[in-house]
Amino acid sequence: NKVDDYEMQINDLESANRVLSEEIKYWMSYLGELPKYMERYQTSLMEQMSANSALSVFKSPTYGNVSIINYKQYDLVYKGEPIMSIEMEDAYVRAYIPQDEFGSIFTGDIVNVIFPDRTKGKGVIEKIYSDLEKLPPEYQDESRASVRSLLAIVRPLNESQQKKWKSNNRLGVEIRKRRFF
Question: What angle is formed at CA 127 by the lines to CA 125 and CA 131, rounded to 5 degrees?
Answer without folding.
Answer: 125
